[in-house]
Amino acid sequence: MFLSRTPVLPTPEQALRGRPEPEFSVPERHTVLGNPLLGPYPEGLEVADFALGCFWGAERKFWQTEGVWTTLVGYQGGHTPNPVYEEVCSGLTGHAEVVRVVFDPSKVSYETLLKLFWESHDPTQGFRQGNDVGTQYRSAVYTHSPEQAERAEASREAYQKVLTASGYGEITTHVLPADETRPFYPAEAHHQQYLDKNPAGYCGIGGTGLSCPIGVAKAG
């Protein structure tokens, strides 16, 4: 019956209270890349945050990308401070499941990461991805600079044209700043690099099969 209901984001007043400090610790290093999960990060690296459904499969997409220095999963865009997984899945915190990507822009561009983001899920589904239903599975890009915001918006417009031409509806992806009103809360240890620890584990990530027309260098 819970899954049959139409998911609705809670208001700040309706959201769970949360807690002033996290209830758990986060592992020090990435199990695949070997680099630290939490900042501060080395000078010259940039941070990008993407929500594209269940973060287990989404994180693997990004750690397999050349130029990505580390990845971690967490919760963002909600109201409840320091949530735990069960609270997020209840729909009462307002958070999305998010992958934080720390990357070297001299090796991989933000546009390339956006292209991977768009092509790895269906951004027209609202509060779901495939069989995964809930507000935590919504599509979103949380940006860390005006330049990221501009590029994310441009990529959304470009991909909308491709989707529309193929009969898809409107993109529901939010592009919002990753500011103090949308802090990133790292998820529990067993969620970090989940599909490395559980190679046969669940992966609900799947795209539309349509290419996003960004991330290609211009001739000349």
TrEMBL record:
Pfam families: PMSR. GO terms for molecular function: peptide-methionine (S)-S-oxide reductase activity. Residues 49-203 form the Peptide methionine sulphoxide reductase MsrA domain. Its EC number is 1.8.4.11. The active site is at residue 54. Belongs to the MsrA Met sulfoxide reductase family. It catalyses: L-methionyl-[protein] + [thioredoxin]-disulfide + H2O = L-methionyl-(S)-S-oxide-[protein] + [thioredoxin]-dithiol; [thioredoxin]-disulfide + L-methionine + H2O = L-methionine (S)-S-oxide + [thioredoxin]-dithiol. This is Peptide methionine sulfoxide reductase MsrA. InterPro entries: Met_Sox_Rdtase_MsrA_dom (IPR002569), Met_Sox_Rdtase_MsrA_sf (IPR036509), MsrA_MetSO_reductase (IPR050162). Has an important function as a repair enzyme for proteins that have been inactivated by oxidation. Catalyzes the reversible oxidation-reduction of methionine sulfoxide in proteins to methionine. Keywords: Oxidoreductase. Residues 1-23 are annotated as: Disordered. It is an enzyme of class 1 (oxidoreductase). Gene3D superfamilies: Peptide methionine sulphoxide reductase MsrA (3.30.1060.10).
